[in-house]
Amino acid sequence: MPELLLLRHAKSDRQDRSLDDFDRPLAPRGRRAAPLMGRFLSEQGLAPGLVLCSTARRAAETLELLLTALASRPEIVYLKTLYLAPPGRLLALLRRQSQDRDRIMLVGHNPGLHHLALELAGGQGGLAGRRLVEKFPTAALARFQVADWPTLGQGPAKLVEFVRPRDLTGAIE
Asked: In which element (H, E) is residue 85 found?
């Protein structure tokens, strides 16, 4: 069964007010969280075959740091249209993916990423569902099992887990 990994970019640095939102780099906390999530993916055998990543600096930096923990580099497609994309745009992009894709990771931004995850989860309970409803924090990962890509969103996908960096190490300060 195909899997979708939704990863929010890691914590960004807001100190340099001269930078556009699009150009903000990762904060030190984000630079620690991203490789931690990469190690989690590697240890769980969840390396994606395809990554769709926003071209915003903080998303691209998150991905590059995450990839340092993976044994092999997946195919990566950077898309400016993922920057602050609404859930409908994200869903349309995912539905166009080839059926032979077993695991796709999308690296993006809230609120669109959170709204898409909530839509796909369809109110599923359990700890993962409760955490997802509460908040989709930076560097968090929602993992879904999906029937196929063309029908994604036409009914709930199975929320397998929702992992935050602090779930792996305690608070990252």
From this structure: none
Taking only the tens place, the pLDDT of each residue in 32-76 is 999 999 999 999 999 999 999 999 999 999 999 999 999 999 999
Q: Give the CATH number of the domain where residue 113 resides.
A: 3.40.50.1240
Q: What is the DSSP string of 55-68?
A: -SHHHHHHHHHHHT
Contact 58, 9 (CB under 8 A): yes
Quick one: which of 79, 110, 112, 86 has its CA closest to 12? 110
Q: How many CB atoms lie within 10 A of CB 45?
A: 7
Burial class (CB in 10 A: 0-12, 13-18, 19+), 165: buried
pTM score, two decimals?
A: 0.95
Asked if 111 and 4 count as a contact pair (C-beta separation under 8 A), the reply is no
**Residue pair 101/49 in contact by the 8 Å Cβ criterion:** yes
Domain extent, residue 120, equals 3-169
